[in-house]
Amino acid sequence: MEVTPLTIYLIGLIGKIDAFLAVTTGIGIATCIALFTLYSDAVVSDEKLKLYKHFKLVLIATAVSVFSLITIPSQKTLIAMYVIPTIASSQVVKEIPDVLLDFVKSYVNEELEETIIKVNTK
Asked: What residue ranges are annotated as transmembrane (predicted)?
């Protein structure tokens, strides 16, 4: 799979979708509790029927929201599923010379040793 700007954008939206679903779920649960309280106190049958229809709609919307919240993968999972394999199998990554990798490793080791020396001298 090719990673396009649209893919990156959609993966970025997942965090906002999760937040929206969490808020929707919270509001739905609170509304279900409120409607259930009103439904149990309603005396007139027409009021009970009207509240029951609202309760049922809110309950269904809340159930869909909870199901979506559970089944939609997180940003990290989507990145692991789509972006990392594409980068790992990229020809550009495979063509990085070993000399460059050795240089990077030696540079990181030197920086690490300097940091250790600075920490030990303090």
From this structure: 20-39, 51-72
Residues 54 and 112 in one domain: no
Rounded CA-CA distance 45/51 in Å is: 10
| Residues 43, 103 share a domain | no
The total domain count for the chain is 2
Task: Supply the range of the domain harboring residue 60.
Answer: 5-89
Q: Identify the residue whose tokens are 């969490």.
A: 22
Mean pLDDT over each residue of the chain, to the nearest integer: 82
Q: What is the CB-side half-sphere exposure of residue 6 using CA atoms within 13 A? A: 2
Q: Which residue has the tokens 């089944």?
A: 71
Q: Are 51 and 3 in contact (CB under 8 A)?
A: no
Span 49-97, pLDDT tens digits: 777 787 888 889 999 999 999 999 988 888 888 888 887 777 776 777 7
User: Would the pTM of this model clear 0.85, i.e. be above it?
Assistant: no
